[in-house]
Automatic annotation (TrEMBL):
It is found in: Endoplasmic reticulum membrane. Residues 5-154 form the UBC core domain. CDD domains: UBCc_UBE2J. Its EC number is 2.3.2.23. It comes from Chytriomyces confervae. InterPro entries: Ub_conjugating_enzyme, UBC, UBQ-conjugating_enzyme/RWD. This is Ubiquitin-conjugating enzyme E2 6.
Length: 240
């Protein structure tokens, strides 16, 4: 159960989140437990998470604001393990660095900032930019399938889902181009290179010249033979 001080502080922060929320961030406590907050981070533009919707929880201790909360992300995102306590400077992993002046807005802004970095920590994972973009496109559908999200954020479930068009990604376009591109020559199993098209033209030309030479040689031989026969006939008539 929350202490009076924690309840008063969190109620005030809820009002502040409603009137002046941080950019890309929404958060609110459960009706049944003010110590458990659910947040939604929207992926900022020009990031691998652009347009994604990332749902998570912040679990405050009874001693808040004098002790830090536990922080989890529930939506698959490619940066953090899901439903796992994250080791951050403003989480319960580091009570020694906690500042009681930090608020829900401060905590979630710090989480988003760390999400956009690549610094490893307990609870983080390593994935490619393309994988994170794919997860971003699937995040809203994933959230709608999660009962925890539907119970806390029914208003977000009414939003129209974006059209999934993975083929428009720059990475996929480049990969497709590279796949279609053919090398100038191929290497056989014995290591010999197969001549490209330009060499084939040269070979064909040389072959044509050699064919003409052979044809001319045959004409010369036949001509010589005919001359020899004529000479023999003339000598025979002369009685030589």
């Amino acid at each position: 159960m929350a202490s009076k001080q924690a309840t008063k502080r969190l109620q005030k922060e809820y009002q502040m989140m409603g009137s002046n929320p941080p950019e890309f961030i929404q958060a609110k406590p459960l009706d049944s437990n003010i110590l458990v907050w659910h947040y939604v981070v929207t992926g900022p533009p020009d990031s691998p998470y652009e347009g994604g919707q990332y749902h998570g929880k912040v679990i405050f201790p009874e001693e808040y604001p004098f002790k830090p909360p536990a922080i989890k992300m529930l939506t698959p995102n490619g940066r953090f393990q899901t439903d796992t306590r994250l080791c951050l400077s403003m989480s319960d992993y580091h009570p020694g660095t906690w500042n009681p002046a930090w608020s829900v807005a401060t905590i979630l802004t710090g989480l988003l900032s760390f999400m956009l970095e690549e610094t490893p920590t307990t609870g983080s994972i390593k994935t490619s930019v393309q994988e994170r973009r794919q997860l971003s496109r699937r995040s809203r559908a994933w959230n709608r399938a999660d009962k925890r999200f539907r119970d806390v954020w029914p208003e977000l479930c009414e939003e129209e889902l974006p059209v999934d068009t993975p083929e428009t990604d720059q990475e996929n376009t480049e990969a497709s181009t590279l796949h279609r591109r053919k090398p100038a020559s191929k290497v056989q199993a014995n290591g010999a290179a197969v001549a490209p098209a330009g060499n084939a033209v040269l070979v064909k030309a040389v072959g044509g010249i050699w064919s003409r030479i052979k044809s001319n040689m045959l004409v010369l031989v036949l001509g010589g033979l005919m001359t020899y026969l004529v000479v023999l006939k003339v000598l025979s008539r002369l009685g030589l």
